[in-house]
Design goal:
CATH architecture of the largest domain in chain A: 3-Layer(aba) Sandwich
Oligomer: heterodimer
Number of helices of chain A: 23
Shape of chain B: elongated
Helix content of chain B: 25-40%
Order of helices and strands of chain B: EHEEHEEHEEHEEH
Strand content of chain B: 35-45%
Shape of chain A: globular
Number of domains of chain B: 2
Strand order of the largest sheet of chain A: 3-2-4-5-7-6
CATH class of the largest domain in chain B: Alpha Beta
Distance between the termini of chain B: 38 Å
C-alpha cells in the first residue's frame, strides 16, 4: 500500500470530509503541511492574523452548515486563534482547527514557539487531540469532523507536531468510528413530546422562543408549520434571528437586554413557553428569578446539559429541533389564541420599540440600518460585530430569508464581523454580504481588509463611526453618572485607509447622502466601504438594565433613573450582575 | 451535601485534566479524587467526592457526559456502597509506653504497623473516611509527623457500574 506522510494524510482526509476551503497562515511548524497543500485542490485563504482565520472558518461554517477549517502554526499561531475558537464554542459552530506543534521529541522542553495548545484550548473546544503518532492521524481527523458536526456542533482542535506531518505510514481512511463515549441523542422521546403537546393544547398564552438550534438543524419549515398550526407567537433569540421570517404575521421579535418591549412583556405574561434550540442565556432571560413567572416551560435542545441549567423546566425534551418539532406538530391540536394576540398587539401599538422617524434630526444609526434594509429589500446577509451597531442591525433590519443574520452571541468578541464576513462570502458567493461594524470593533481586525482586496470579495462594509466604544459609553452614561472612562477614540481617516487598501470608500455625514451611498456601494463589482459619521450620543433602546428583570425593560434615557433606583432598592443596594 | 460520583473513562492522555478542569470550571470544590485501573483494559475508574446541591451535581454529571472520553457517570451517594480509603500515618512514639499505647489503638481500628523507627511508627489503616478520622483523633495526642490519605474509592453492592455500562452499550447497539 502507498506510503504517505502526515501532511498528505491530513490533506487526503480533508478531501474525504468534503473540505474545499481552508483559512489559515503558515509558520515554522506547519511549513511541511503548507508544502503539501500546494498539491491539493483546496482554496486556501491567507488571513493576516490567525484570529481572522478562526473567525473566517466560523463565518464559513455558519453560512453553509459545513465544518469550517482553519490552520495556524504552533505557539502564537495557536494562541491567536483562541478568541475565534471560544467564539465557535459558545455559539455551537462546527469547526476543525489544525495547529502546528513543535516536534514530538521537543514537546515539554519549552522549545521555540511551543505552547501547550491542547491544554489552553481544553475548556473552549468540544474535544481536542494531540497527535503523537502519524498512524493515529487519519482516525483522529475522521473523529474530529464527526464530533464537530454531530449533536450540538462545536470546534474540535487537532494539534500536529512537525515530525508527525513528515513521518510516513500507509494511508487508509477509517470507514468506521469507535467513540463509545459520544452518542448524541437526536430523536425526541415520544412520551415527553406528547406531554408537551398536552400542555401546549391547554395553554392560553403560549409563546415560542426559537434559537440558533433551528438554523443549525435547518428546521425552518418545521418551525413555521408548528407555529401556523396553533397560531402561536414566535420570538427568536439574537442567534435565532432569521430562523423564522421576520415578515411573517406570527413573528413577534426578539427578547432580552435589547429586545423589543412587547417580547419581554410577552415572556413575562405567557403561561407556556416552548423554548427550542436555545440555551436561556442571561442576555435573554434578564434576572433569572423573575424570568417568565407565569409560564411552564417546554425546553427542547439537543444538549441535555442545557435542560434545567438556568431555568426550571416542566417538560425537557432532548433531541434535534427538526425531528422534535415535526412530531410535536403532529401531536398538537389546531388552535387559535385571539385574546392573547389582542394583548400582544396592544403592547405593540403602545410600545412600538422599532418605530423610527421618517427623517431624524441627526445621523441616526438605527435609521441608517433601516435604509440598508430598504435598499437591499431584506435580501442581504448581514454579518455584524459586537456592541451598539450589532444591536441596531439586529433590531432595524428585517430578515426574511433563512440564515441571513450572522453574529457572535455568546462570546461577543469585537472584531468578529470583518473576518467572519469573508468566511460567509466564501460560503455563499452569490449572496450580497454586508459587514456591519463600529469603529471600535473594526480596528481590532481591520488587517483582513487585505484579504478582501487580494481576493476581490464583493463584501460591503458599513462602518458606523461614533468615535466611541459606544456600548460601554452608553452604560457609563446611564449607570455610571456620565463618567466617561476610556471610551472616546481617536480614529484614523477611514477614507484614506480604504484607499490604502484599494477599497472604494466614501464618508457619509448627511442624511441625504445615506441612500445614494448605499446604492453606490451595491453597484460596485467588488468590495466597498461606507463610513457613516453617526451621532455619538445615540443609545440602544429598549434596554433591560443590568440586574433587572424583563418586566423592567426601559425605553429611553428618561426611564433610567426611576427604574434603576427601584432595582437597586429591590436588590438591597447592589445592582448585581453585569 | 456530599456526593460520591463514580466515572468510567477511556484511558486517554489528558482525561484526568479534562475531568478535574470541568469540576473547577463549574465551581465545584473537589474533596477527594481517586483514579485507577479497572477490570477492563483501556478503562479507568474515577471516584470523586464533591460538596454541592443536588441540582448542581446533576448539572455537573450532564457536563461530564459531554466529555468524549467519559463513558459512564453514576452518583452513588444514595446507593448501598462499600466506601474505603487508605491512610499512612507516621506517629511519634519515642518511648515504650507510648509505643504500646499506639499499637493498642491501631489494633482496635484493625490497622497495621508497617514500619518501626527509633522515634516513630508508620500506621496503615483502611476504612471509611469516618473510621480514618476517628483513628487520627486518638493518635493526634502522640504527635503526627506525617500523614497521607488516598481519598475514597467506592463500589456499589451487587450489580456493577461496568455491567450497567455493558447493558447501555447493548441497548445502544440494539
Amino acid at each position: 500500500m502507498q506510503q504517505l506522510n502526515g501532511s498528505q494524510i491530513l490533506c487526503e482526509s480533508l478531501l474525504r470530509e468534503g473540505v474545499d476551503t481552508i483559512f489559515g497562515m503558515p509558520g515554522g511548524a506547519v511549513i511541511p503541511l503548507y508544502n503539501v497543500l500546494l498539491d491539493y485542490p483546496f482554496k486556501h485563504v491567507l488571513c493576516r492574523h490567525e484570529q481572522g482565520a478562526a473567525h473566517m472558518a466560523d463565518g464559513y461554517a455558519r453560512a453553509t452548515g459545513k465544518v469550517g477549517v482553519c490552520i495556524g502554526t504552533s505557539g502564537p499561531g495557536a494562541t491567536n486563534m483562541v478568541t475565534g475558537i471560544a467564539t465557535a464554542m459558545m455559539d455551537s459552530v462546527p469547526m476543525v482547527v489544525i495547529t502546528g506543534q513543535v516536534p514530538t521529541y521537543m514537546i515539554g522542553k519549552d522549545a521555540f514557539q511551543e505552547t501547550d495548545t491542547t491544554g489552553i484550548t481544553m475548556p473552549i473546544t468540544k474535544h481536542n487531540y494531540l497527535v503523537m503518532d502519524v498512524k493515529d492521524l487519519a482516525r483522529v481527523v475522521r473523529e474530529a469532523f464527526h464530533i464537530a458536526r454531530t449533536g450540538r456542533p462545536g470546534p474540535v482542535l487537532i494539534d500536529l507536531p512537525k515530525d508527525v506531518t513528515t513521518n510516513e505510514t500507509t494511508f487508509e481512511y477509517p470507514s468506521k468510528l469507535s467513540l463509545p463515549g459520544f452518542k448524541p441523542k437526536t430523536q425526541g422521546h415520544i412520551r415527553q413530546i406528547r406531554q408537551a403537546a398536552r400542555l401546549i393544547d391547554e395553554a392560553r398564552k403560549p409563546l415560542v422562543m426559537a434559537g440558533h438550534g433551528i438554523i443549525l438543524s435547518e428546521a425552518y419549515d418545521e418551525l413555521r408549520e408548528f407555529a401556523e398550526k396553533i397560531q402561536i407567537p414566535v420570538i427568536t433569540t439574537l442567534l435565532g434571528i432569521s430562523a423564522f421570517p421576520e415578515t411573517h404575521p406570527l413573528y413577534l421579535g426578539w427578547p432580552g437586554m435589547h429586545g423589543m418591549y412587547y417580547c419581554n412583556m410577552a415572556i413575562s405574561h405567557a403561561d407556556l413557553i416552548v423554548a427550542v434550540g436555545m440555551r436561556m442565556d442571561d442576555r435573554v432571560t434578564g434576572r433569572l428569578n423573575a424570568f417568565a413567572p407565569h409560564a411552564q416551560i417546554v425546553h427542547i435542545d439537543i444538549d441535555p446539559a442545557e435542560l434545567g441549567k438556568n431555568v426550571r423546566t416542566a417538560v425537557p425534551i432532548v433531541g434535534d429541533a427538526k425531528h422534535v418539532l415535526k412530531l410535536l406538530t403532529q401531536e398538537v391540536r389546531d388552535n387559535r389564541h385571539d385574546g392573547w394576540w389582542e394583548q400582544l398587539n396592544q403592547w405593540r401599538v403602545e410600545h412600538p420599540s422599532l418605530a423610527l422617524p421618517d427623517r431624524p434630526e441627526k445621523m441616526s444609526s438605527p435609521w441608517i440600518v433601516r435604509q440598508l434594509y430598504h435598499a437591499t429589500k431584506g435580501n442581504a446577509v448581514l454579518v455584524t460585530d459586537v456592541g451598539q451597531a450589532q444591536m441596531w442591525a439586529a433590531q432595524h433590519y428585517f430578515f426574511s430569508k433563512p440564515n441571513t443574520h450572522i453574529t457572535s452571541g455568546g462570546l461577543g468578541p469585537m472584531g468578529y464581523a470583518l473576518p467572519a464576513s469573508i468566511g460567509v462570502q466564501y460560503g455563499r458567493p452569490n449572496d450580497e454580504v454586508w459587514c456591519v461594524t463600529g469603529d471600535g470593533g473594526f480596528q481590532m481586525t481591520l488587517e483582513e481588509l487585505a484579504v478582501i482586496r487580494e481576493e476581490n470579495l464583493p463584501i460591503k462594509i458599513a462602518l458606523f463611526n461614533n468615535s466611541y466604544l459606544g456600548m460601554v459609553r452608553q452604560w457609563q452614561q446611564l449607570f455610571f453618572n456620565e463618567r466617561y472612562s476610556a471610551v472616546k477614540m481617536w480614529n484614523p481617516n477611514y477614507v484614506k485607509l480604504g484607499e490604502a487598501y484599494e477599497i472604494p470608500t466614501v464618508r457619509c455625514t448627511q442624511l441625504d447622502e445615506v441612500a445614494p451611498a448605499l446604492e453606490w456601494a451595491r453597484q460596485i463589482d467588488g468590495p466597498a466601504m461606507i463610513e457613516f459619521m453617526v451621532d455619538p450620543y445615540e443609545n440602544v433602546f429598549p434596554m433591560v438594565p443590568p440586574g433587572a428583570s424583563l418586566q423592567e425593560t426601559i425605553e429611553g434615557v428618561e426611564d433610567v433613573a426611576p427604574q434603576t433606583a427601584k432595582i437597586a432598592a429591590a436588590a438591597g443596594g447592589s445592582s448585581g450582575g453585569v | 451535601m456530599k456526593h460520591t460520583l463514580v466515572a468510567l473513562v477511556e484511558n486517554q492522555p489528558g482525561v484526568l485534566m479534562r475531568v478535574a478542569n470541568l469540576f473547577a470550571r463549574r465551581g465545584f470544590n473537589i474533596e477527594s479524587f481517586t483514579v485507577g485501573h479497572t477490570e477492563t483494559t483501556k478503562l479507568s475508574r474515577m471516584t470523586v467526592v464533591v460538596d454541592g446541591a443536588q441540582t448542581q451535581v446533576e448539572q455537573v454529571i450532564k457536563q461530564l457526559y459531554k466529555l468524549i472520553d467519559v463513558l459512564k457517570v453514576s452518583d452513588v451517594t444514595e446507593d448501598r456502597t462499600i466506601d474505603r480509603e487508605l491512610a499512612l500515618i507516621k506517629v511519634t512514639a519515642s518511648n515504650s509506653a507510648s509505643r504500646a499505647e499506639v499499637v493498642q489503638f491501631v489494633n482496635i481500628f484493625r490497622g497495621k504497623i508497617v514500619d518501626v523507627a527509633p522515634d516513630s511508627l508508620i500506621v496503615e489503616v483502611t476504612g471509611t473516611e469516618e473510621k480514618v478520622d476517628s483513628l487520627l483523633d486518638v493518635l493526634r495526642p502522640f504527635g503526627i509527623k506525617e500523614m497521607v490519605r488516598t481519598g475514597t474509592v467506592a463500589m456499589t453492592r451487587g450489580g456493577s457500574v461496568s455491567a450497567r455500562l455493558a447493558e447501555d452499550r447493548l441497548e445502544a447497539a440494539g
